């Protein structure tokens, strides 16, 4: 897709525009799946037709959080589990921005689980990429919400006694209007899914399986995937919540039994986004908040008036 330059001429967008001029040396380990997310995202951007100046990438904390350092756009490396609230505020203030939030499984499904649930429920228009390596990577391999039952780590030396979270089902029941799973070993599908997620108007959740060769060699993120849309074994309607839910449960059960099912699981194109709902109630102005003019003197006077009245 194309964009327009400063003097209004149409031009092609190139994936290399998303590589910072002073390219920082990525500190991800060799073979890390996080490289796959970066590559797929850079490839998807020209398809979506957005330039770095029109894009905001908000990340959490973890190996995954470093994504915003290696991707050229507006960026915000936030705190652990808090990428979504930052992304929501930015989208509310400037709805014209292409907003992407990204973080790890510990970040998004653990400490930030509450924000995940409510951002999905409210259908904020953004793409949320969760790097799912089934462990806490940055802090050296502790058990995470997606680690399988029995998974041994420094924090669970006898094996985890907990059932892993079901990210796809959780997104669906919370209210996400687009839900997909892809994998770093799966670059073509990953690019297609990220493109579709960004083009979707509403909350798009992508559970992105990323291998961590340093701390989690046992995870199934390496094994060949089956695309549920391309396979004759799976015939379901991605616009039907019930059928999507059944398919998600199959995929979530299969993951820990060694079969990786990826692809699109749910897509609701009719549900209005949070911003549309807010504008319909008259609660949100048409003009972006980011472009509102604030008269500082007037605002101060208003504050003093308010204080006087409450004395
Ligand atoms: C509030 C808070 N608690 C704990 C930490 C320590 N911490 C940093 S990264 C991390 C886990 C990262 O795991 P995950 O989110 O899965 O990302 P990954 O490194 O695997 O990409 C933790 C616990 C922190 N930075 N902030
Ligand atoms: S520790 Fe794991 S997740 Fe982190 S950079 Fe290394 S391979 Fe990637
Ligand atoms: Mg992780």
The count of helical stretches stands at 9
Tell me the Rg in angstroms: 21 Å
Number of strands: 12
List of distinct ligands in this structure: thiamine diphosphate, iron/sulfur cluster, magnesium ion
Instruction: Quickly give the CATH architecture.
Output: 3-Layer(aba) Sandwich
CATH topology: Rossmann fold
What is the CATH first-level class name?
Alpha Beta
Helix content: 25-40%
The rough form would be described as globular
Can you list the strand order of the major beta sheet?
4-3-5-6-10-9-12-11
Tell me the major beta sheet: 8 strands, mixed
- Tell me the series of helices and strands, N- to C-terminal: EEHEEHEHHEEEHEHEEHEHH
Cofactor: [4Fe-4S] cluster
Keywords: Oxidoreductase
Region (Disordered): 140-165, 266-290
Domain Thiamine pyrophosphate enzyme TPP-binding: 61-208
What do you see in this structure?
It contains nine helices and twelve strands. The mean pLDDT is 93. The strands form three sheets. The chain has an eight-stranded mixed sheet with strand order 4-3-5-6-10-9-12-11, with helices on both faces. Helices cover 32% and strands 18% of the residues. The protein has helices at residues 34-48, 83-93, 105-111, 113-122, 167-174, 187-199, 241-255, 274-281, 296-309; strands at residues 2-4, 10-12, 55-59, 74-77, 98-104, 126-132, 135-136, 142-143, 178-183, 203-209, 225-227, 260-267. With 311 residues, it is α/β, with parallel strands linked by helices. The chain has one domain (2-309): Thiamin diphosphate (ThDP)-binding fold, Pyr/PP domains (Rossmann fold, 3-Layer(aba) Sandwich). Bound molecules: thiamine diphosphate (TPP), iron/sulfur cluster (SF4) and magnesium ion.
